[in-house]
């Protein structure tokens, strides 16, 4: 799944899907590696989005 075009909500939903797959234990080792890498990218993007949103909110209250 291409993560660069996902909204925060869709990225979070995808992370939740990945967690369910990882917890099921049914994925092969190759797929596990891919899923973990994808989740890491999505988590990073979500953290950035949250930080930027927090900065925007703080800036709005300063004005």
UniProtKB/TrEMBL annotation:
E.C. designation(s): 3.1.11.6
Keyword Transferase annotated: no
Superkingdom per UniProt: Bacteria
SUPFAM superfamilies reported in the protein's UniProt record: XseB-like
UniProtKB keywords: Cytoplasm, Exonuclease, Hydrolase, Nuclease
A GO molecular-function descriptor: exodeoxyribonuclease VII activity
Family named by the database record: Belongs to the XseB family.
Protein name: Exodeoxyribonuclease VII small subunit
GN (gene name): xseB
């Amino acid at each position: 799944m291409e993560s660069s075009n996902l909204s925060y909500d869709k990225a979070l939903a995808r992370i939740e899907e990945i967690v369910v797959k990882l917890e099921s234990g049914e994925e092969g080792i190759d797929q596990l590696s891919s899923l973990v890498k994808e989740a890491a990218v999505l988590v990073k993007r979500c953290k950035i989005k949250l930080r930027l949103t927090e900065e925007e909110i703080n800036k709005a209250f300063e004005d």
